Amino acid sequence: MCGIVGLFLKDPKLEPQLGAMMTDMLITMTDRGPDSAGIAIYSSAGKGLGKLTVQSAHPEKDFKGLDGDLKEAIGAPVAMLVKSTHAVLEVPLGQLEAARSAVTHLRPGIKVMSSGENIEIFKEVGLPKDVAARFEVSKMGGTHGIGHTRMATESAVTTMGAHPFSTGADQCLVHNGSLSNHNGVRRELKRLGMTFETENDTEVGAAFISHKLQSGESLGNALEATLTDLDGFFTFVVGTHNGFGVVRDPIACKPAVMAETDQYVAFGSEYRALVNLPGIEDARVWEPEPATVYFWER
Amino acid sequence: MQTFDLGKEGLRALNSSLHALKGQTNMTSWEVVNPKGAHAIAAGVDAPVDITVRGSTGYYCAGMNKQATIRIKGSAGPGVAENMMSGTVIIDGNASQYAGATGRGGLLVIKGNASSRCGVSMKGIDIVVHGSIGHMSAFMAQSGNLVVLGDAGDALGDSLYEARLFVRGSVKSLGADCIEKEMRPEHYAILEDLLKRGEADHLAKPSEFKRYGSARKLYNFNIDNASSY
Known about the structure:
- The structure holds two protein chains of two kinds.
- By secondary structure, chain A is α+β, with helices and mostly antiparallel strands.
- Helices cover 26% and strands 33% of the residues of chain A.
- Chain A has two domains: 3-41 and 140-297, Aminohydrolase, N-terminal nucleophile (Ntn) domain (Glutamine Phosphoribosylpyrophosphate, subunit 1, domain 1, 4-Layer Sandwich), CATH 3.60.20.10; 44-117, Alpha-Beta Plaits (2-Layer Sandwich).
- In chain A, helix 6 runs parallel beside helix 7.
- Chain B is of the alpha/beta class.
- Chain B has one domain (2-215): 3 Solenoid (Pectate Lyase C-like).
- Chain B contains three helices and eleven strands.
- Chains A and B meet through loops of A and loops of B.
């Protein structure tokens, strides 16, 4: 199973409520995926700044003095916000890559969840309501976000096995389904220089799309390519710095429903996830067609 | 009229009240408010009552229905009226995957579109869709009638048995062993009746439909194919 939610705001007035709306959607999808949950929220760090979201199994030890150590290592100012097992580090955009490699040297126990101008990813094992509460997602604002509730099939129930997966700057992917040719595709992508953190099938889907984007393909073309090169069942929702995309495999047995108003575009594995959104009664509600790429960008 | 607020009273209370209606009852008219996409609303009803759901429903609404007339004033999630035995289910909006799957009797009316696998393995149910249907619809359909005023997606009627498929618009592709067949007087009569009962007689005429059915080539083992197995 697994549950997916997504929200792309067109109306800036809703931006302060993005986290609250997404928390409600995510918790509604608990019975589709009670073992782990995750969310990617996109909001600007401020002009010239980038964000690195990191995770540690031992946050007291790993995050203590991390901002000072990182500042010294990259020679630039660092602001750190610790939220439970995750921390968001703001650094000058030009130093983002240097900060990423410095962090893993300074604290080998740390995993990088995401990096980019806008993205923050928080994910953990546990019930969606507990995961959302420990990261205070409901207080977060932003322009768009995607969330996932996981019922694991292909790999272990771990923090790193939870979705979203991020394999490129400001990019992330969530998945409902299972891929059957992920080992072969992973080998090919490794040969092309992509790196992997897990044995998870979804991470391969994420890296496949990131590799296409890095090669200069548009988001639309990258999503089209999943239909020919990935085998298995999938409904994917992909986030980028300025929007999100949706694609379902040609069999399309994994459910998906979308709603659009003047204020937002919303995605849910089920209509239940959308029922508390403002103006849903008058929204255009439809099921994305199989083997058809949809995306919204600002 | 019995009005039931699903948000306040909960699904289990609704369905046990409906299941308690055995045979004839004085409580013949029910209204369900605040469905909010909940699963299994009014599944397993076995009484000649009229139930109106004011909003959209989740998985398996009106599943296994016997005798009841169930109206959904919104759209329906996957598996609406799955395995219906008798009665009528009318959806004002769209229906998700496998609407009316395995249905043995009764009438399912979808006023919007139905997505993939509509009427999969139908066994006697009649389905009238005012809009279009998705891919793999009527897969292994055994008996009953599927009437589509719009278009059909890929692989219509794959591995079909004896169900009759009537489509007014285009068919993207026919599945294995499904072919177009001639319209005979009895087929026009079936269509006229179903369009009327499906609240579609003002939208389409029987003469506008084509009929599809089984070529009956997959019914028996074919020795020429032995090397393929």
